[in-house]
């Protein structure tokens, strides 16, 4: 039996660490192995397995194993202390030194928002506690407001991305890691996650105590970051890395620009809301952040940020340079579901000059902001970018699976789903030597419940539009929405939505539905399924 305490533990009993540790051991020794095992089983059942179940009926047991694996790993690797967050590899290995990335906000948080909103709140509180470090980073770079670190450790540390990475295959010299300097979308990703959390929970206390302040401080950063281009009378963001980390020094990365604009627009809405409903809180925040002085600047810059538009092929350009670069055939590098094959032949500087994408970039934008782009743009962009994507990051496959499912590309979606589940469960387990991929675990839940289960937050409202894979007979899941528990059972013919407790409203194919308290409603989806073929 082990009992480990350190000086940063909260709720330490009075007395020294040794004493605390010995007392804990003595308490545990009152129970024998079987009793402790039973206690552990009880807690896992009550806290995890019986809460928000996901049940898949299919000829194959693998999908159920995958979702159980993901839920187990998420539970086991998430600290229950807001001063800490989820490492990219959780606690399963030393890759990325335990640091936290945007993986939490964009890929893992949906699971917590819909299943354990209290844990989601703590994960976001971590960013609130990180404002000090984010101010440090902004100041260091001559910006204002809060610029969140690309890699984060202890909240007040600020940026912790290492400066140097592995050796370049051509020069033999260590490669400089630029993400800590120019991969800046993390600041908007945090704002995005806060808005998702607020929509799903309506947690006003969090909004007023922490959430709104983060949004306002983030918008201050973006307003100071934007660059005016007088030739076009517009604001641009040059020299960044977007989600596609194979493009360094990109100008006007679409994902970064759209997210920055959205962040500023949210801040404007927050100011208007606070002035109206909570003037005292507005005044307190104004005192801290000089909101009165910056509001007009936000309005001007928010409307004039350059947002890359679809080109003649109906494709959103990833950035100003990408579409003019040479294209190579990536098929040989995509074999065997292995990562980074491309580096056997090219170094990063060479890849930078080719149309090669590491992970969903434009496609992630189209997924997160789906209401802003029609199906044609999403389909054209998929057809353009997917063949140019190596999926060398574990964050890539799940986004592709969800987007393909939304676009009614059932077989392709399932293919991506299966590959994504294999990230830490498949034959090529070598990928996990430095630890498993927590964002991929979040991705398994996202593909299952958001993708096939059809759950999405659209303009603050819940939408449920399932696309059950042909290989599955049914999918049953539960989610929390606005303090209600919702159960959805999907088959190829119908979906049944039940509210356990308070009633729930949701949208399906443009129509609003209301499930009364403790009741169910049934929607026929067999027609959609037939159209899909
Ligand atoms: O955050 C990711 C990044 O997008 C791709 N490389 C790995 C990081 C940690 O998972």
Automatic annotation (TrEMBL):
It comes from the Bacteria. Pfam families: Glyco_hydro_65C, Glyco_hydro_65m. The keyword Hydrolase applies. The keyword Hydrolase applies. Residues 70-446 form the Glycoside hydrolase family 65 central catalytic domain. Coiled coil: none annotated. Gene3D superfamilies: 1.50.10.10, Maltose phosphorylase, domain 3 (2.60.420.10). InterPro entries: 6-hairpin_glycosidase_sf, 6hp_glycosidase-like_sf, Glyco_hydro_65_C, Glyco_hydro_65_M. One of its GO terms (biological process) is carbohydrate metabolic process. Residues 456-515 form the Glycoside hydrolase family 65 C-terminal domain. GO terms for molecular function: hydrolase activity, hydrolyzing O-glycosyl compounds. Keywords: Hydrolase. This is Glycoside hydrolase family 65 central catalytic. It comes from Companilactobacillus mindensis DSM 14500.
């Amino acid at each position: 039996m082990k009992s480990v305490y350190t000086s940063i533990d909260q709720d330490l009993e009075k007395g020294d660490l040794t004493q605390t540790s010995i007392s804990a051991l003595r308490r545990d020794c009152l129970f024998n192995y079987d009793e402790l095992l039973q206690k552990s089983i009880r807690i896992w059942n009550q806290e995890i397995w019986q809460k928000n179940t996901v049940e898949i009926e299919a000829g194959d047991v693998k999908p159920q194993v995958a979702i159980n694996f993901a839920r187990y790993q998420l539970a086991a690797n998430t600290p229950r202390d807001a001063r800490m967050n989820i490492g990219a590899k959780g606690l399963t290995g030393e890759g990325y030194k335990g640091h936290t990335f945007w993986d939490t906000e964009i890929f893992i948080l949906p699971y917590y928002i819909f299943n354990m909103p209290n844990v989601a709140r703590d994960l976001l509180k971590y960013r609130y506690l990180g404002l000090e470090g984010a101010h440090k980073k902004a100041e260091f770079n001559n910006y204002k407001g809060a610029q969140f670190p690309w890699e984060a450790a202890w909240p007040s540390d600020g940026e912790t991305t290492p400066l140097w990475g592995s050796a370049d295959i051509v020069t033999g010299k260590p490669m400089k890691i630029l993400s800590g300097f120019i991969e800046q979308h993390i600041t908007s990703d945090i704002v995005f996650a806060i808005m998702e959390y607020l929509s799903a929970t309506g947690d006003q206390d969090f909004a007023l105590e922490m959430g709104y302040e983060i949004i306002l401080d983030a918008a201050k950063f973006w307003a100071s970051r934007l660059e005016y281009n007088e030739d076009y009378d517009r604001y641009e963001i040059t020299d960044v890395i977007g989600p596609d980390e194979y493009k360094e020094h990109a100008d006007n990365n679409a994902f970064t620009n759209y997210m920055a604009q959205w962040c500023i627009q949210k801040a404007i809405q927050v100011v208007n809301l606070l002035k109206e409903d909570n003037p005292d809180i507005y005044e307190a925040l104004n005192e801290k952040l000089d909101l009165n002085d910056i509001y007009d600047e936000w309005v001007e810059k928010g409307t004039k940020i350059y947002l890359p538009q679809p080109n003649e092929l109906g494709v959103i350009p990833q950035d100003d340079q990408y579409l003019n670069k040479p294209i190579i055939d990536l098929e040989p590098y995509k074999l065997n579901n292995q990562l980074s094959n491309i580096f056997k032949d090219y170094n990063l500087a060479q890849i930078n000059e080719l149309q090669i994408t590491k992970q969903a970039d434009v496609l992630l934008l189209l997924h997160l902001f789906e209401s802003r782009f029609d199906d044609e743009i999403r389909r054209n962009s998929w057809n353009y970018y997917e063949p140019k994507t190596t999926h060398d990051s574990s964050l890539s496959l799940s986004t592709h699976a969800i987007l393909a499912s939304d676009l009614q590309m059932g077989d392709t979606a399932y293919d991506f789903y299966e590959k994504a589940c294999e990230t830490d469960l498949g034959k090529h387990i070598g990928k996990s030597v430095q630890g498993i991929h927590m964002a991929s675990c979040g991705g398994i839940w996202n593909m299952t419940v958001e993708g096939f289960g059809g759950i999405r937050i659209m303009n603050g409202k819940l939408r449920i539009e399932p696309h059950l894979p042909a290989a599955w007979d049914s999918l049953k899941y539960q989610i929390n929405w606005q303090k209600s528990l919702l159960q959805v059972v999907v088959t190829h013919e119908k979906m049944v939505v039940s509210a356990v407790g308070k009633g729930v409203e949701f949208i399906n194919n443009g129509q609003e539905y209301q499930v009364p308290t403790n009741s169910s409603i049934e929607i026929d989806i067999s027609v959609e399924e037939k159209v899909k073929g």
